[in-house]
């Protein structure tokens, strides 16, 4: 099993959450203040490493490699499975957006989380 951070459409209450039915929610966590959250192509949440980053709320799940392979197939091009630093210093994995892809999006980091951004739309 792999500890995997979920920050976007797969989160609780979001449109893709049913894809995590085989995963176990461990806790709500925050990234280190090293990321920005973008709305890409009008629909995709993209977490991008940034020097002027902030902490973004995520859910930490225990996921099988089979589940992560299925989720990777659902991610758009430019989202890659990479290490993610949490505010408490731990490192987990997440689907992180390539900076060049995120640069084409709208920065929504001030909301602190994807669900907060969606609720405010």
Protein model, in words:
- This protein has a single domain, classed as Gamma-glutamyl cyclotransferase-like (Hypothetical upf0131 protein ytfp, Roll).
- The protein is 17% helix and 39% strand.
- It has a three-stranded antiparallel β-sheet with strand order 1-5-2.
- A hairpin with a 3-residue loop joins strand 3 and strand 4.
- The longest helix has 10 residues.
- It is globular.
Count up the domains: 1
Strand order of the largest sheet: 1-5-2
Mean pLDDT: 96
Q: Please give the number of β-strands.
A: 8
- Stated plainly, the CATH topology is called Hypothetical upf0131 protein ytfp
Task: Give the biggest beta sheet.
Answer: 3 strands, antiparallel
CATH C-level: Alpha Beta
Poorly predicted parts: none
Proportion of strand residues:
35-45%
Number of helices, counting only DSSP H or I runs of 4 residues or more: 3
Determine the fraction of residues in helical runs and give it as a percent range. 10-25%
Separation of the first and last Cα atoms:
35 Å
CATH homologous superfamily placement: Gamma-glutamyl cyclotransferase-like
Shape: globular
Query: CATH architecture, please?
Result: Roll
In terms of structural class, how would the helical and strand content be classed? alpha+beta
The succession of helices and strands, N to C, reads EEEEEHEEHEH
Radius of gyration: 13 Å
Short description:
This protein has helices at 65-74, 99-102, 114-120; strands spanning 2-6, 24-30, 35-40, 44-49, 57-63, 79-85, 91-97, 106-107.
């Amino acid at each position: 099993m792999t500890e995997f951070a979920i920050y976007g459409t797969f989160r609780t209450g979001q449109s893709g959450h049913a894809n995590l039915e085989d995963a176990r929610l461990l806790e709500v966590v925050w990234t280190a203040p090293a990321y920005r959250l973008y709305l890409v192509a009008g629909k995709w949440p993209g977490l991008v490493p940034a020097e002027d980053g902030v902490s973004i709320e995520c859910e930490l799940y225990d996921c099988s490699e089979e589940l992560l392979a299925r989720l990777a197939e659902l991610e758009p091009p430019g989202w890659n499975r990479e290490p993610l630093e949490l505010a408490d210093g731990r490192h987990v994995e997440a689907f992180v957006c390539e900076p060049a892809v995120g640069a084409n999006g709208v920065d929504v980091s001030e909301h602190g989380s994807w669900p907060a951004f969606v609720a405010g739309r």
